[in-house]
Structures are given as structure tokens and as C-alpha cells.
Write a structure and sequence with these properties.
Blueprint (H helix, E strand, L loop, with lengths): L9 E7 L11 H17 L3 E11 L2 E8 L6 H6 L21 H11 L4 E6 L3 E9 L14 H16 L19 E5 L3 H11 L5 E5 L2 H7 L7 E5 L7 H9 L9 E5 L4 H9 L4 E4 L4 H31 L3 H17 L1 H18 L8 E3 H19 L3 E6 L7 E3 L4 H10 L8 E9 L3 E8 L6 H8 L10 H13 L4 E5 L3 E9 L3
Parallel strand pairs: 1-2, 6-7, 6-8, 8-9, 9-10, 12-14
Antiparallel strand pairs: 2-3, 3-5, 4-5, 11-13, 14-15, 15-17, 16-17
Length: 510
């Protein structure tokens, strides 16, 4: 896992632990964490030379030493090096300093094992960290040569080196996704080394990969566009992978945004906690490249099937003409034929425009100019105003919007819903406003009515995206398609007896 940090440096990583070194009595995951933190610190502050790990038995205990030929530390630095959030002078290194928690955590973990962690250093010559652990005296201790802690550290680089080869893993050729619509993966880890490892493993697969270093950054990124998979480390400061998964599940069901957790802890209770937090799957670290690729492909295929269902659903909605709407329109045509032929011809023309614009299937998988959508809305409203006469009053506040693009049939369903379930629930009818408000980087498109409004229970049902006989799949499908393109879906404001506002955000082209 640390080999990638040595790129561009003349540094050798050397394992000098004897092959027959005795087993120790310790928490395996915590020993990995201790050794990783100490080696990570050595790599961070060593620009050339050697970093080595050694092991000796002394006074009945195992002593593990990690030495480097880095910048070293003076006496003042040594006094506070194990304090949390302290670190060496970043000005003396070629890399930025971090939070400095690794050494403090390692010291506490060693002491919890009943051992000690000590350091010696000479400025300009390097540092030496030594920690002790209890030797296992169990005669029944099993040989752990394949999964032993220290050997896993020595071998980790070989697995990752294979992952970075431009070829195959175990003979498997890299699989290329559809480049016109690659799966979007958000990777979350506070360690840049882990981020690079995951990127190298998955980059040849044709995924669109974005990496962030914290859970809060990940939640912000969710608002920018639709994602097909979130890969998150479990052990992160401020917000753990479990907490991130719970936050994501408050916004997305398990099929709409899969989550893959990466963890060094593989006890049953740890895995159970991951699934209870909302994860779809998990991979233990150090990650095996082939396993990670396989699980990522499985989860993105699940997400793709959901996305395809939404596309088919949208196409079905686009092709659908509700019988009562068509019957009512034809009845209006019949009535006008006896009293106003000019108005009858106008109504027939608008019905033709409505059908022609509604069946623009060339836009079904991409964004369409907002003016095309507004043409559908205008035709629809003209037809409905002929039917309802002065009970339906419409106001337009749209301004200049020629550069805006949106998924087709996103405004018209909102207008139809406002008329059917808002305004026309009152005998006197009401007003509807179609508004496009412009801001620096985005526009807000809203449909507002002064109809019957909704109570909290009804509003929550819609916010939870649960279809029923009133809203069907139209609003839910519109919401999901908007999320795919703009990161956020429909938003609702409603007061019973006052009216309802439904709106969504459209990002402007830079």
C-alpha cells in the first residue's frame, strides 16, 4: 500500500523480519494499523535512502523497529511528536504536513497491548521507532504464513503493482464500459495513497472516477450530478464510512445509489454494522484488485439496470396519452364546431403541436432545449384553458432561457399535477405560475399554484417518493431523471388551503 508513495523518490522499502519470527499475542487489525502508521510516517519524511522494518526477541517480548534515512527530528520535536495534531516541520520536507494523528494513535494502540513505543532520531540522518508486543505462548497457535500481519505488509505492494499493470489480472483483460455513458464512481478515503490505489485498479475499466478525502466532501458531491456507486473507507476522521452510508440512505434507496465499504476489519459484527448502515457490499483491505473490480462491476450493473428501467419508464410516459385528456379535448372540438370554427381550428392545431412535441423521441436519453419543453406546456395549457375557460388562469415569468437544457417532460407533468390535484379541486379554479428564475451558476424552474395545497402527511409521502393512485409514477420518474443530470430532484413547498410550489435546479453551462 505504501509503494505508490515512493514514486519520484529514491527510496527502498525493505522487510528484514526473520522468516521464523514468533507469533505475537495481539489484535491483528490493530497491529496492521500500528505498522502502517509508522511506515507511512517514515515514507512521508524520507526523500532518499532506505526504510526498513526489523524484528528481534528481547526479554521475552517481540520488538519491532522501523528505521528510515529521512530528515530526522531535533530534541524539541521529539518531546511532542506523540501529541495529537502535532507534526514535524513541513517546510523541511517535500510534502505537506497532515494532521499528525497517526503517531499518537499508534502509541495508544501499542500501550493498550501492554507494550511501549519509543523513538530516537538525529536531524538529517533519520529516525527509528521501536514498539514491543507480547509473544504468544500458546502451543496451539496456528501458522499464519499466508495471512500473517507482517507478511501481508511485505506482500501488499506486489498485489497493487499487478493492479497497475496495463494488461490483465490473472489473465483477465480490462473491460471497457460504454464510453458515451460510463458509470460514475465516487471514491471516499482520507488517505491519498488508498485513493490512488483504487484509481489504478479501476481506471482501466472505463469508469468515470471522482475522489474526495472526507465524508462531508462526498455529501456535497452528491448534489452535483447523479452517481452510480460510492466506494468509501470505513475508518475516517470526523465522519466514518458507516455515518456516511447512513446519511446517503436518508436520500437514496439501496438500489438507486449502491455503496461499497472498504474496511480492514472483517469480524462478523463489523460487516453487520456496514450492512445495517446501508452498504450494499464490502471489501477487506488490503484490497485484492480482482475482487474489487468484480464487486464494483456487480454493483454498477445493478445501478445500470435501475437506470435503464427509468429510461423505459420515461419513454412510456412520453408515449402515453391519457384517455380522459384526449376525450375531453375531442369533446371540446365537437362543441366548438357548432359555435366557433376559428377557435376549433386553433384547438386542433394546438393538439397537433402538443402531440408532435411530446413525441420527440430523439431527446429521450439526453437533455433538450428548455424551449421545446415550454412549447409542450403552452400547447397543453391552451387545451386545458379551452376546457376550463376562466377557471384556469396562467402567468408566465420565464425571461431569457435559450441556453438552458433539461430532460424532456419535466415541467409539463408538474403543470398537469398542479391543475388536476391543486387548482381544479376547487370549484372556482385558480392560478398557476410557470417561473424561471436566473442566478449566477444555475436557474430555478418552478410551477406554483394557489390550489388546495397538501398537509404534512401527503407532502411527506411525495418526498419519500412513494407512488400512489394520485401521483402515479410521473413525479417519481421526473424526480429521478433530474437527479441523474443535476444531482438534485424535485423540491416541494405546500400549505393546505394556500397552494403548492414545485421546483428544481438546472446548472448553467460554464
Amino acid at each position: 500500500m505504501l509503494h505508490f508513495m515512493t514514486e519520484g523518490k529514491r527510496v527502498r522499502l525493505v522487510n528484514r523480519i526473520p522468516e521464523q519470527f514468533p507469533d505475537v499475542y495481539a489484535d491483528e487489525n490493530r497491529v496492521i494499523q500500528i505498522v502502517y502508521n509508522l511506515l507511512h510516517n517514515a515514507v512521508k519524511f524520507t526523500n532518499e535512502g532506505e526504510i526498513a522494518i526489523r524484528g528481534v526477541v528481547k526479554d521475552g517480548r517481540a520488538h519491532i523497529a522501523i528505521t528510515d534515512t529521512g530528515i530526522g527530528m531535533d530534541e524539541d520535536t521529539l518531546r511532542y511528536i506523540f501529541e495529537p495534531y502535532e507534526q514535524g516541520d513541513p517546510g523541511k520536507t517535500m510534502v505537506e504536513g497532515g494532521f499528525g494523528l497517526g503517531l499518537s494513535i499508534s502509541k495508544q494502540l501499542v500501550e493498550l497491548h501492554g507494550g511501549t513505543l519509543k523513538v530516537s532520531s538525529v536531524p538529517g540522518q533519520g529516525s527509528k521507532f521501536v514498539f514491543s508486543l507480547q509473544i504468544s505462548d500458546s502451543a496451539a497457535a496456528q501458522e499464519e504464513s499466508k495471512t500473517g500481519v507482517l507478511k501481508s505488509i511485505a506482500d501488499a505492494g506486489s498485489v497493487l503493482a499487478v493492479a497497475s499493470e496495463a494488461g490483465s489480472i490473472s489473465g483477465q483483460q480490462p473491460r471497457q464500459e460504454n464510453q458515451s455513458d460510463p458509470s460514475r464512481i465516487l471514491v471516499v478515503d482520507d488517505d491519498p495513497v488508498n485513493l490512488k490505489v483504487i484509481y489504478n485498479i479501476l481506471s482501466s475499466e472505463g469508469f468515470d472516477i471522482t475522489a474526495v478525502s472526507s465524508g462531508s466532501e462526498a455529501l456535497s458531491m452528491l448534489d452535483t450530478k447523479e452517481w452510480d456507486l460510492v466506494i468509501s473507507d470505513v475508518m475516517m476522521p470526523n465522519m466514518s464510512g458507516y455515518e456516511l452510508a447512513r446519511s446517503i440512505r436518508k436520500r437514496y434507496p439501496i438500489t438507486e445509489l449502491p455503496i461499497l465499504l472498504l474496511t480492514a476489519r472483517n469480524r462478523p459484527e463489523d460487516i453487520a454494522n456496514g450492512f445495517l448502515s446501508g452498504a450494499n457490499d464490502y471489501v477487506t483491505k488490503p484490497a485484492d484488485a480482482l475482487e474489487l473490480r468484480s464487486r464494483v462491476h456487480a454493483l454498477t450493473e445493478v445501478r445500470k439496470s435501475v437506470r435503464d428501467r427509468l429510461r423505459m419508464e420515461a419513454a412510456w410516459l412520453q408515449a402515453q396519452i391519457q384517455p380522459h385528456f384526449l376525450f375531453n379535448t375531442l369533446n371540446a372540438v365537437t362543441a366548438l364546431s357548432e359555435i366557433d370554427l376559428g377557435k376549433m381550428r386553433d384547438l386542433i392545431d394546438e393538439l397537433g403541436n402538443f402531440l408532435r412535441n411530446k413525441f420527440q423521441f430523439q431527446y429521450k436519453d439526453e437533455l433538450a432545449p428548455v424551449e421545446d419543453e415550454l412549447n409542450i406546456v403552452r400547447s397543453y395549457l391552451y387545451i386545458e384553458q379551452v376546457r376550463y375557460d376562466d377557471r384556469l388562469r396562467v402567468a408566465w415569468e420565464i425571461g431569457e432561457c435559450k441556453d438552458l437544457k433539461i430532460p424532456l417532460l419535466t415541467i409539463q407533468p408538474l403543470v398537469e399535477n398542479a391543475i388536476k390535484h391543486g387548482i381544479m379541486k376547487r370549484s372556482r379554479g385558480g392560478n398557476i405560475v410557470i417561473r424561471i428564475s436566473h442566478f449566477d451558476t444555475y436557474a430555478e424552474i418552478s410551477v406554483e399554484d394557489d390550489g388546495v395545497g397538501m398537509d404534512e402527511a401527503r407532502l411527506q409521502q411525495i418526498l419519500d417518493r412513494k407512488p400512489d393512485s394520485k401521483s402515479g409514477v410521473g413525479l417519481i420518474n421526473t424526480d429521478r431523471r433530474l437527479k441523474r443530470y443535476f444531482g438534485k430532484g424535485l423540491q416541494f413547498e405546500s400549505i393546505p388551503g394556500v397552494g403548492t410550489k414545485v421546483f428544481f435546479i438546472v446548472h448553467k453551462k460554464k
